[in-house]
Amino acid sequence: MTQGWIKAIGMMSGTSLDGVDAALIETDGINVRRSDHSVFVPYTPQLRERMRACFGNRTATNTEHVVADDLTQVHVGAVNMLLAKAQVAASDIGVIGFHGQTVFHEPGAGITRQIGTPEMLAEQTGIPVVADFRLADVAAGGEGAPLVPVYHAALMKSTGIDIPVAVLNIGGVSNVTWIGPDDELLAFDCGPGNARLDDWMLRHTGNPVDLNGATASSGHPDPMVEVKFLEDPYFDRVPPKSLDRDDMAARIDGLVVEAALDVADGAATLAQCTVAAIVAGVNHFPAAPLQWFVCGGGRHNQYLMEHLNRRLGVPVRSVDDLDWDGDAVEAECFGYLAVRHLRDLPLSFPGTTGVPHPCPGGRLYLCRPKIR
Q1: DSSP letters of 210-259?
Q2: Cut 0.90: pTM above it
Q3: What is the DSSP letter of 43?
Q4: d(CA 188, CA 93)
Q5: Between β-strands 363-365 and 129-131, what pairing exists: parallel, antiparallel or unpaired?
Q6: H or E, element range at 364
Q7: Of the chain's two ends, which shows fewer C-beta atoms within 10 Å, N or C?
Q8: pLDDT, tens digit, 9 for 90 and up, residues 154-193
Q9: Checking DSSP bridges between strand 173-179 and strand 129-131, what pairing results, if any?
């Protein structure tokens, strides 16, 4: 493909299982122009539970293929909604970056699985699709995650923010990008993000989220649960390192059940475990960040943000303060990575996933020409 700027749509379906984010950017694979056009399409409760049932499967099942197609149809709708909102024709879009839904992630065994049907997305939108972003990294010995650091660094370049700085994403799992001098990057998954708290709220209240952290704010955390939680050997592992959504689930859920906590105290305790995992990650940074910027759904949780500010001891702000869209950063990232694939530029690095050398990634799915 010729050099120059490309309009790209990035799409993300994260481990929070809330829905699909789609965002429009323009990039040459190095620099980026954000459009401020994004959409969110929520999953129905039925599709959410069908996807949840796919978690933990090391290999695909017949049921999973049907779920993947239904998931892809939501993405098709999101693309069409975004094009209409931005008043852009499909023919003006050079590529879609399609992450799909992660259902199993065990890089130590050489396995990472994202479901979705990229050829269907290309066919129904008429736009080339890049997918399978994590496979090459894992095959080369990397963790396969996180992939967003190169995009965090590209956005941060134009802000004039003093470094070192940390960009924290709190989705189902929390991950951090440390950006140092001379474009130095270190990234890793910190621990559970919203996943344990979301599952707790769904199980006990029927609501899939603790809106604004209101339930956690009304409770009292159990400090012994946090102490026992931090005994997990993951926190001492030297990064890069990554987690599956349900890693630590049995352990932390068991600790909360053993403590016999009510709904509010359980929510507060799980939120504090999320905070504690992030704070523990500071021990692995080459130098302490001067400030943190938070994206993802977790930045809406006032309880999390207040306690991160208190325990990290430096300013913790939403990325919206940088004029980024904190709900769309990950979606934008996969549009950026799709163009980097077209340019044969690396998506992951030794400091971000532990891959031995900078690693390209992704696979291109072309839409078939229509027969007239």
Answers
A1: -GGGHHHHTS---HHHHHHHTTSGGGGSPSS----TTTTHHHHHHHHHHT
A2: yes
A3: P
A4: 32
A5: antiparallel
A6: strand 363-365
A7: C
A8: 999 989 999 999 999 999 999 999 999 998 999 999 999 9
A9: unpaired
